[in-house]
Design a protein that fits this description.
The chain is of the alpha+beta class and 324 residues long. It is built from 10 helices and 17 strands. Helix 9 packs across helix 10.
């Protein structure tokens, strides 16, 4: 365990990523934690001091900000080290499904006014993101059809237009709470839940709507056209581009990856068992000829740059503070 406190420059933003204890246990092993490394690389690109911490890493929550002790996991070289860290200017809340006693400590910490909280779930909800991008003609044609799901009529409308659809929580859920629904030849409906292998058949439209709503565990839902994805072997795969703005204000790709879903799964989220690999490697594994890989990556990066600028213009700064 490293105990030396590192100095932070006056103008360097300190970003703490709040995670559950089970997530932090991964930092003690030798296996790469790809998702965490994505954030670490993006932070370094932006000259941001980043670390991960749990509720247990903070003591004296009720005391004065400057007097509290906080520990965190930082990436040093290829290893994650647990050490004393400076107080965060911003906390990125990534705790999902805390269990037992941890649920109480997480809830208590979230109520603390000594942290500036930023939630990835509320920063760019799916429906708001869709509306912003739909306002740009060059991007609108690339979007799957999507609408808010408020009644059975919305589900009926989408299934009249598409073979299958996905019902999702409007706020980010890391692949949880998603239901795939399709129309069966007999005039009934079938569905499958993310994270589960079994399928349910012979449903009425009202039953499918109710089951999907219950599984999402959220009132605000969106329904989206299910689009064909690349395949790597028997797994679905998608491309993910992490964009970041450098100190000169220019948007650049921080990381280009492919999410290869767990075999048999219809979602490609890392937290739902997917593997994340470099994009070039993934496209080759999907069977694309070598001469097409570079051209496709260039095209995807061009679109990603347009997406980043459009979302920035439509959403504005997510955090109102002196740091950008």
């Amino acid at each position: 365990m490293v105990r030396a406190t590192q100095k932070v420059g006056r103008r360097q933003m300190v970003l703490g990523i709040f995670v559950a204890k089970a997530y932090a246990e991964q930092f003690k092993g030798d296996k790469p934690i790809y998702e965490a490394e994505i954030y670490a690389k993006a932070a370094k690109h932006r000259n941001v001091r980043l670390y991960y911490f749990t509720a247990e890493d903070v003591s004296g929550v009720g005391g004065k900000r400057g007097k509290k002790k906080i520990w965190g996991w930082s990436l040093r070289g290829n290893k994650w080290r647990h050490s004393r860290v400076p107080w965060p200017h911003v906390v990125f809340d990534q705790v999902i499904d805390p269990e037992g006693a941890e649920k109480r400590t997480v809830s208590r910490l979230r109520r603390s006014k000594n942290f500036a909280w930023l939630s990835p779930r509320t920063g760019l909800p799916k429906w708001l993101t869709h509306k912003i991008l739909a306002g740009h003609s060059s991007l609108a044609r690339l979007l799957p059809e999507e609408r808010r799901l408020k009644s059975v009529d919305d589900l009926d409308y989408m299934l009249d237009r598409h073979k299958s659809v996905l019902v999702k929580p409007d706020l980010g859920s890391r692949g949880r709470g998603i239901t795939m629904i399709w129309r069966e030849p007999e005039g009934t409906y079938g569905l499958r839940y993310s994270g589960k292998e079994e399928q349910v058949s012979g449903l009425t439209l009202a039953e499918a709507y109710q089951l999907a709503s219950n599984y999402a565990e959220e009132d605000n839902l969106v329904i989206s056209q299910q689009i064909p994805l690349l395949r790597v072997g028997n797994s679905l795969a998608d491309m993910r581009i992490i964009m970041g703005k450098n100190l000169q204000g220019k948007w650049l790709p921080v990381l280009t990856i492919m999410g290869v879903g767990k075999e048999g799964s219809f979602v490609t989220n890392w937290s739902m068992g997917a593997e994340e690999i470099p994009l070039e490697q993934g496209l080759a594994a999907a069977g694309l000829p070598a001469e097409q890989v570079k051209a496709l990556i260039d095209q995807v990066l061009e679109v990603s740059h347009k997406l980043a600028k459009a979302l920035e213009a439509g959403r504005g700064t997510l955090l109102k503070s002196g740091w950008t």
